[in-house]
Amino acid sequence: MIVRSLGVLPALVVALCLAALPAFADSPLLVTVGEVTDTAAVVWGRGFQVGTLTVEYAPETGGPAFVGSVALTRSTELTGKVALRGLTPATRYTYRVRQGEESVRGSFITAPARDQSRPVTVHWSGDLGGARYCRHIQDGYPIFRPMARLRPDFFLFVGDTIYADVRCGGPDRVPGYDFVATTLEGFREKHRYNRADPAVQEFFRTTSVYAIWDDHEVKNDFSGPGEPLMPVGRRAFLEYWPVQPPRDDPTRLYRKFRWGKLLEVFVLDTRQYRSPNQDPDGPGKTMLGPPQRRWLIDNVSTSTATWKLVVSSVSLSVPTGRPTARDSWSNANRLGFPEENATGYAVERDLILRTLRDRGVKNLVWIVADVHHAELIRHHPWPGFAFHELIAGPLSASRGRPRPLDMGLNPRSLFGLGEIDNFGEVTIDAVGLTVRVIDASGTVRFTHAIGPE
After folding, report:
1. Residue 114 falls within a domain, yes or no?
2. Reduced to 3 DSSP states, what percent helix, strand and coil does the chain have, rounded to the nearest 5?
């Protein structure tokens, strides 16, 4: 990757140059911006030929303009990432991505500096392209249009970014998804299909994305290294999202980022380190693996941000999977009663929560998808310790409905919405946190305010 300065250009010149470029849907180029911090970002792109992909970027209001580039090769299926460094906090940047004569434009906003207290708006959801719910031949994935109109600061894509393990086709669906992925090219094709949707590209054009996988990026309810397809599914996920793991741990997906003084986000990988689902729960069973569990506890408990958002692709309190092989954290049965000799991951879950309680963590919120319905839950497992679990989804997949919650967490459901595509919105300011559930038409279905402890 090469980055060089284009010099200081007048704001009007930069704005006119970028505004004259075509939208993403009019180009064979695919673009996603992610991993944005106060001073950095990653631009991911997929081109249409071997060669150089170039990214030009500058502050929206004018100032120094820069250019970066990456070589696209067949080995990464014409995908590449350009790291942008030295950005100004709390600033909207415009960019142009080009290859040959083709180019597309977009923008993103950087995070405030750590000591800046600025309002932030976050969208989250998951579950895109499930069986019978892949791209409609006319509407595509329509839920992304109201998301784009609302212009959040960033989007948390909380798992099941593709459905590699299901078929979806028919005369009313865009062809190219009606197969089960078992090879690297198949996994890549699933990602490419979802990313090429015009509404998805419209949203990603102005909104940075932090994505994490769940099971359907590989295979339903898969458990870590015991799944033979896990390495190839992970490779395709890393190729198709702007995630940049540390060099000494090139397959690591869990990470954190700060959004000013008010918010820090901790993104968990609940898949590649987990014990087999069918193992009985106990002190030796883990969903996160010991290193990630220590990382989570230490970083959340030492965070100085007002609000701590933990992103988990699977629910803390909604039982999923089969009784003989639970897939979420919960050990509860379908009536919500915790069971002995169950196969969930509740021992590890409760260890994490008790430790955070003992360390005095306040204003803890878990962001979840996976269960194909929306729900806002307040958990009060022990005196003096409470937190919220916020669930959204699906974006476009089979629809579920609320069900009994794990009573071991002493939950109280504040709102539930099933049988409809939806996403969640969290707005944080100096007063507190407000969460809204919004359906695919853009209609707000529920609003709830939470004051900081």
Report:
1. no
2. 20, 35, 45
